[in-house]
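Key idea: predict the complex, not the pieces.
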Amino acid sequence: MARGMTDLGSSDRLAAALAHLGTTIDARAKEGDASTSWTAKLLAKGPDACAEKVHEEGQELAEAVMKESDDRVASEAADVLYHAFVALRARGVSLNDVAAALEKRQGISGIDEKAGRAG
Ligand SMILES: N=c1c2ncn([C@@H]3O[C@H](COP(=O)(O)OP(=O)(O)OP(=O)(O)O)[C@@H](O)[C@H]3O)c2ncn1[C@@H]1O[C@H](COP(=O)(O)O)[C@@H](O)[C@H]1O
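Result:
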């Protein structure tokens, strides 16, 4: 049977890694050097360039899910998360904003949410 998403304390580990990543991205945004930091380089190009990377990395993750190893899937998922965070920073949308969006959905089935949409 496939492993669960949160086996062996992995949710705490992921939360810590994501919080660390957010702090690093903030630091690069404030004083990063585009000649030595990918994050600073990407942020200097603006939100559209960050969006392009999210798009590209999302496609790579999708391809990995379809035909690559578990390690490759995890690595591509990390790329997507990192680039999504950089894009959020570029737009000035905080991790708190994302947490609030996720919290609002807790306990609501995606099927019910879709059925309840206006229009
Ligand atoms: N998590 C990441 C991270 N994930 C991916 N990347 C970079 O994103 C870039 C993606 O470039 P490409 O599209 O050319 O590469 P790719 O899609 O991996 O490869 P291809 O298959 O397209 O060839 C590479 O330079 C990766 O190193 C990252 N760069 C930085 N981080 C984190 O951000 C921190 C700060 O990094 P800097 O800002 O570079 O100091 C690092 O310590 C990490 O914690």
